[in-house]
Please model this.
Amino acid sequence: MYAALAPACPTSSFTRRARVGGASNERTDPAQRGRLQEIRDNLLARVAEAEREGWLGEVEGLNASLAGAEDELAKIDRQFQKATIILGVPTTRSGDVE
Model:
């Protein structure tokens, strides 16, 4: 049904799932969107810190995790996109005009 989300440490199983392609046909629970946003924000801060400190290997791993988190958020967003239906411009029939 729904894919499990990352535990408290955002680079553990979440990273492994992101690196091996994840559970592409599983759906992420939409109720977890807020948690995914927290994970993404945390990863962004950690990438910035790693870049500032020159930890190139850490930057690479964190960027892989970040891509996975952003991918999961995009999946949730796609689940709720509505298709636009063009109904056309309403017209009156000649006999309906008063």
